[in-house]
Amino acid sequence: MTDRLPLEQLLAQGRPAAHPVALTPDGPRDFRDFMLAVSAWAETFRTTTAQRIALYCEDSFEFASALFAAWHSGKCVFLPGDGLPGTLTALAAKVDAFAGDLPKALKPAPATAGTDAPMTWSALNPDAEQLVIFTSGSTGTPEAIGKRLGQLFREAGNLARCFNHALPASAIVLATVSHQHIYGLLFRILWPLASGHAFVSTRLAYPEDMLAAMRSCSAVLVASPAHLKRLPVHLPWSEARPFMLFSSGGPLPVEALHACRTLLGQAPREIFGSSETGGIAWRQRHADDNACWQPLPGVTLEVRDGLLHVSSEHAPDSTWLDARTRARHTPAGIVLEGRTDQIVKIEEKRVSLTAVEALLLATGLVHEVGLVMLERPRTGLGVVIVLSPAGRELLSRQGRQVVNAQLREALAGHLDPVSLPRRWRHVEQLPVNAQGKVTQAALNACFQETFAPPEAVLLQHADGEARLSLMVPAGSDHFAGHFPGQPVLPGVTQLDWAIHYGRRLFDLSAAFMRLEQVKFQQLITPDLPLTLILGHDPARQLLTFRFVSEHGAHASGRIVFGDA
């Protein structure tokens, strides 16, 4: 176990110069390296009048250095959830400058002669409100939430109190989640810095990355349900199991829990909380699939009239907060029974989205489901589903209309006819953000008819390559105007689809830069079965694509991503 250090004193008190901080692609970084990196960023921040800084960095060591430099320079840091153009456009009116891996952003000052010694630092002010994070947007538009440094630092310290006793000093923190969100920020950056544990600076996007990283250390794996419920059974997990495993960002399905026990050798420590409240409670389901939740250190829980209320050191003050969650208290702990904001009105009829989801899953035809309220062409429920093996088999035998009809029938006895879903989408996996959460914006995008790519069947996804089967039916909007009497699929549409599926299947959050070696060999006509073959080279931020059919190649090329 390592020595805990209050984060407000991290730079003022410091650690030994050779104390390990991070493992980066360029090699290990110790505390002296960290202090020098913070000093370089501080030189930049102290020479700008901008006070509100939007910070986005892919590398966690660089991010942590810039974050503490900004705080010590008196700046308020805004954390965008990603670096996509739409996110940055929405943020531009709220901040004075951008920093990190963004176009036209502030960068650390270059090293010059005589600056090879770290600066001296004072302690940070815990009462300063110097961080703004954003909710995931899983139930609507992301909301900005201001945080005092003391809230964050107390929570990092409480995590250390709760979990450090079980960790060796050599334990290293690995993560599949982004540090741009509160869960990743706390577990991937602040807790390791407070605890003295080193962290891996790159995010582990694929199961193969997780396995390779865990082979070389006593790993603390910080993950989300989105990653844990897709652990390939063919990988040799017994060769590299984590020392400690965490999951947060949403409910962990029972089948994913069982997979963790079998493949990773343990049940994860599940964390329940929110951007507003911070961490609230935790549990570890060793053998009991329904184990109760226990409050984290610094948190008091009460159940009032069936609703969970929280008093926490991680909140802005000691006021009791409504966690917007149904709950009941038992001698063994708290049982959570779903969010209270999962109730919608359709034609003045109240509908529980939780109940609709449970009914669909109970059919055995559905593996996962996402529900969204649609306003056009009429108000109603949209359903995005990932079929189970039984659902896929029914789809192959009798088609999509039969599958959807059976699902509607399962709901008919429980919902008023005006509340029944009328729009359905079948996908290979529910769209998630970097935090592993399914967002309403992504679900809504599945119903944008005019420009939405066709529904595709994922045939293969491994080792940086993916194959999808798709077909564009006659009458699709994609053929409109190209050309009367002889419809063909436009080349720009094919490029859009390659980017769309590339971003869905691979870690391609960077901006589009250019096309290379694009060729259109044959026309794509209506009702032609196609195979789209995608290849991803993460080191070069390169996506290759090929559209092929029984007639041969139709289109191919390379798409390069990166900073504009």
Question: What is the compact description of this entry?
Answer:
With 564 residues, the chain is of the alpha/beta class.
Describe the structure.
This protein is α/β, with parallel strands linked by helices and about 575 residues long. Helices cover about 25% and strands about 30% of the residues. The chain contains 14 helices and 29 strands. It has a 9-stranded mixed beta sheet, with helices on both faces. Helix 6 (about 180-195) links the parallel strand 8 (about 170-175) and strand 9 (about 200). Helix 2 (about 30-45) crosses helix 3 (about 60-70), helix 5 (about 150-165) crosses helix 6 (about 180-195) and helix 11 (about 390-400) packs across helix 12 (about 400-410). The longest helix is centred in the N-terminal third of the chain and has 15 residues, at about 30-45. The chain is globular and about 75 Å long. It starts with 9 loop residues before the first helix and ends with a strand.
